[in-house]
Give the backbone structure.
Amino acid sequence: MSTASATVSRWTRRFVAAGACWLVLWSLAALVGLPRRTEVTLALSGFVFHTLFGKAYALVPAYFDRELAVPRAPTVQLPLSVLGTLGLAAAGLPWVPGLVGASGAILWATGVAVFLGTLAWTVRDNLAGAETGTGDHDAARRPVDRMANAAMPVAFAYLAVGTAVLVTAHTPVDAPFAYAPQRTHLFAAGTAALLVFSVGFRLLPRFFVADPPKPLVAVALSLGAGAPLILALTLPAGPIFRFGATLEALAVVAFALAVLWLVVESDRERVGRYGVVLGALSGVAVVGLGLSFAFVGLDAALVVTHYRVALVGFLGLTIVGVATQFYPPAVGAFPVDADRLALGAMAALASGLVVDAAGRLADQPTIATGGLALATLGTVGYAWLLLGIFRERARGGPA
């Protein structure tokens, strides 16, 4: 491995490790009842985006048949993103001055500028992703690879717009998307979900050694690219919002069906598949709730369930499942069976979200708190697993 590749790999792991730590912080924030904005920031900007940033530095250049133009870019971005997330999360607390949130937004935006600038320069002569880096032995996968590549710049455009809007929201100007869930949907549905779709359709067929039906890929990517803009522009209600919610639901269901197809067709029994399946099923639950909001109306208890299952169930469990494919638990040194630890962490996280949702629907706070406590065990288990694997690698072990 070259020095540049080793640098990118090392900082990718640091981003992913930071993401795991943010996930633990999210669970603790939810458990003690911190404000919604703080909770969403910890889960989305903290866990989801730190993980996505790290893996994008490693994967996107290869998917576009290029090498990362500035190998030190992750080194510059990580502290900016960590400090920015801290500031944005703290801004959700009522006693924190607005300057903290503004500073966090600027730091976050600077980190995003480093990220987007580096990737844009890396793929500047292949922006549509027609060159996929797919070898001749996988030539049959090139059509799907090209579709997946073409969706990635759209996801990054959502990130740029969402970040610009986030900065304006923390400055004394009339900001677009003044309703906070509009900004959240730009980031969560526009960037994170679309990256899960596009990167997923490049990764999962290789992991499972199977191929998804091309119509499902086309539906998930095309509708997943357009629907978030409609949602962000029209939240929280109205006929166009309902149209956007329907398109997003079709995209997520298509992705879930593709994931299930891959798992059924695969003969690879790896623990990560359970996280990916749980994530896909969580996505179906999320868009089901979204359609309920669009056609029936908002329900306060269900809104909390919606964003928790979206960020930690759909996006989170998918990330956890893929992470355990990238970093196989069995190669780490643990006092318990590592695959069982990974499976237990996924099960605790998924079941904790279900129990939390059930407690909220039944208006039983004790049950909901028990669910969050169970989810916290899952986040701690995932972080322990991942950090243990990285520690083994740093010591020169097999990880």
In short: The two ends are 15 Å apart (CA to CA). Residues 362 and 368 are 9 Å apart (CA to CA). The chain has a mean pLDDT of 91. The longest helix spans residues 3-32.
